[in-house]
From TrEMBL:
Organism name: Rathayibacter rubneri
Gene3D superfamilies tied to this protein: 3.40.50.12090
One Pfam family this sequence matches: CW_binding_2
This protein's name: Cell wall-binding repeat-containing protein
Entry superkingdom: Bacteria
Cellular-component GO terms for this entry: outer membrane-bounded periplasmic space
């Protein structure tokens, strides 16, 4: 039962908060009357969705909670599948629930559920041995934020070649009325492409299917053999390629633009700047150290950045280039961040972009070689976590890096690369320092394997079907991709110049990444890579 009024007064007097409110039902009719009495359950969770309290109540409820939060509140009709459990904010997804941190009076409206049914018609494929296993997914589309679908249901089915199998969401798995995109996928290593209802191959461009109280039937799928599409980002030089990379992902205005030198010796500045740009919703461009090329100048004007940060000292990006950039800026927000070396520059970039506080993790790749820092940049960017370059060959953790880590107060310090890249001494120092909650290392047998392990540990959004391929032994065409890949939600893998490593090709298909963009022209990644030809 709901707490008595005197209990609520006592709770408030002790400094706790009290959440009161009303539970409303949509779709009530003669056949589906509103239940009476204590027919509802109100569950309150913490930010990690761990249950804090659960109360059986009537349509009017009051819940005392310890001061603090944030909390999330879910309501359901106890033991009923007629109305869908709903979070405060009127959403079926806990990820979109409105937080509660103070006493509040709220209303939660529970929608009716409805059934959905359809079929899968399995084609005759030369790759099919026996029956194919499928998963049908129901992705709910928030009418106020259609860019981030939420998975509300999955159901399994299977079928042999030239057969038709049925599937449904009904009864306990019925869905709340609203808009959906239905997807067919295969668990494990797929032999068929994933497919969206109405024979669409990609999430983008798939129309929303409306589920009404009457339910829906005839949601059919006919899968096709798995196939990949590739394209390239390739300019006349690394600076033109950098411009084409930002054009793929960003429209102006952007909050911030980092400009780093694209010279052979200055790659660490760009790799430090990428995650910082992503954290702020910005982009990264390369420039020639001594001259601002017209193509770069035009892109700066197109992006219309609110703030421009030139990365590196005058030895990296000349004062002349800085003045030219300043002349292009519509604001006075043009500055330089540059240290005495690549490591100080990296720390200064992090200090400028990431406010002091507690982060989930901090990534620590070496600044002596580029592949590991290149691979982790999109991951750090889309997760909003900092990257600090370290001298991986050093015997221990230096004082300046310790100070930077202390300021970030990260739960996890993630070393990138094996002991030839990041020394055992650095790992031991970090573990003993207390500067991070714990220490872990992601390290493969080589740079390709490390890249794959990173992407396996930090997979992109499940509905993402795009990936980037960069040459593993040449950074020039890939330096700008970190913020672009992060903005698009796409992972970055490494490739040999003339072929794709077998395990990388398998990973691309296993994660249904069938739209692959190569970074650089055919002199960087040969035509065979464009066909995703596997290395012998």
């Amino acid at each position: 039962p709901s707490p008595a009024p005197e209990d609520l007064v006592a709770a408030a007097a002790e400094g706790d908060i009290v959440v009161t409110g009303t539970l409303a039902l949509s779709g009530v009719d003669e056949a589906h009357p509103a239940p009476e009495g204590d027919a509802y359950t109100v569950r309150v969770t913490n930010a990690d969705l761990e249950t804090v309290s659960e109360t059986v109540t009537g349509a009017a409820f009051s819940v005392p909670l310890p001061a603090g939060g944030p909390y999330h509140l879910q309501a359901r009709v106890t033991g009923s599948t007629t109305w869908y459990p709903t979070w405060y904010g009127d959403t079926p997804s806990p990820e979109d629930a409105d937080p509660i941190s103070t006493s509040a009076e709220i209303v939660v409206t529970l929608p009716r559920t409805a059934p959905v049914a359809g079929t899968v018609s399995t084609p005759d494929s030369g790759y099919l041995d026996g029956a194919a296993a499928y998963t049908v997914q129901a992705w709910w589309i928030d009418p106020e934020n259609s860019e981030r679908p939420r998975l509300l249901g999955e159901t399994a089915t299977s079928g042999a070649a030239l057969s038709t199998s049925d599937w449904s969401f009904s009864g306990a798995t019925a869905l709340p009325v609203g808009g959906y995109k239905f997807r067919l996928t295969q668990p494990g290593y797929p032999i068929f492409d994933d497919q969206y209802y109405l024979n669409r191959s990609r999430l983008e461009g798939t129309p929303v299917t409306t589920l009404t109280l009457a339910g829906r039937t005839g949601v059919g799928f006919t899968p096709r053999d798995f196939g990949s599409t590739t394209d390239r980002i390739a300019g006349s030089d690394r600076y033109d390629t950098s411009v084409k990379t930002t054009q793929l992902a960003f429209d102006g205005p952007v909050p911030v633009l980092y400009v780093a030198a694209g010279a052979e010796t200055t790659w660490p500045d760009a790799l430090s700047a990428g995650p910082a740009a992503s954290f702020q919703g910005g982009a990264l461009l390369l420039t020639d150290p001594g001259s601002l090329f017209p193509v770069t100048a035009a892109e700066i004007q197109r992006l219309r950045p609110e703030r421009i940060i030139v990365v590196g000292s005058a030895n990296s990006v000349s004062e002349n280039v800085l003045r030219e950039i300043d002349a292009l800026s519509p604001t006075d927000e043009v500055s330089r961040i540059g240290g005495a070396n690549r490591y100080e520059t990296s720390r200064l970039i992090v200090e400028d972009a990431f406010p002091a506080g507690s982060y989930r993790e901090v990534f620590l790749p070496t600044g002596e070689k580029f592949p590991d820092a290149l691979s982790v940049a999109p991951i750090a960017g889309r997760s909003g976590q900092p990257v600090i370059l370290v001298n991986g060959a050093a015997g221990g953790l230096d004082a300046a890096t310790r100070a930077a880590l202390d300021r970030l107060d990260a739960d996890l310090g993630r070393l990138i690369g094996d002991t030839p890249s990041i020394s055992a001494g650095i790992e031991a120092d970090l573990s003993a320092s207390g500067l991070v909650g714990s220490v872990d290392r992601i390290a493969g047998e080589d740079r390709h394997d490390t890249s794959r392990l990173l992407n396996a540990e930090y997979p992109s959004f499940e509905l993402n079907d795009a990936a980037f391929l960069a040459r593993a032994d040449s950074f020039a065409d890939a330096l700008s991709v970190g913020p672009a890949a992060a903005a698009l939600g796409a992972p970055l893998y490494l490739s040999n110049p003339g072929c794709v490593p077998y395990d990388t090709r398998v990973e691309l298909q296993a994660h249904e990444l069938d739209y692959v963009t190569l970074l650089g022209g055919p002199n960087t990644l040969q035509p065979a890579v464009g066909s995703l030809a596997v290395c012998p």
